[in-house]
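Is this the right way to post structure tokens for a design question? Let me know if I should format differently. Anyway, here goes:
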């Protein structure tokens, strides 16, 4: 029986993602939203279970996030970029919790 090894990736601008390399995560520095879009689609096909994506890019990639929102993999988790948080990640978590339990518990 073959065991699938899943990857964890971080996608964002160079300054935001390179610190994650020290933690052993696969980092994918991108320069614009189109490169991020292509990277996310490629990672989804390559057994990537979790993709951390900076909020700054996520703000431009709503269609990509929606595409994978209800899929088992990859889970796209929004993180603040070097510019700080835009609050998008917290809003997404809050909406997911509301869907799961039927109420805002945050």
């Amino acid at each position: 029986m073959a065991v699938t090894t899943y990857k964890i990736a971080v996608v964002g601008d160079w300054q935001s993602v390179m610190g994650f390399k020290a933690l052993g995560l696969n980092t994918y520095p991108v320069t614009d939203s189109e490169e991020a879009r292509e990277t996310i689609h490629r990672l989804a096909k390559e057994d990537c279970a979790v993709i951390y994506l900076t909020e700054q890019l996520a703000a431009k990639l709503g269609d990509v996030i929606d595409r994978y929102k209800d899929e088992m993999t990859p889970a796209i988790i929004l993180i603040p970029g070097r510019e700080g948080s835009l609050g998008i990640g917290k809003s997404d978590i809050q909406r997911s919790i509301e869907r799961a339990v039927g109420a805002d518990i945050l």
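Format looks fine. Someone answered above. Worth noting: The chain is about 45% helix and 20% strand. The two ends are 42 Å apart (CA to CA).
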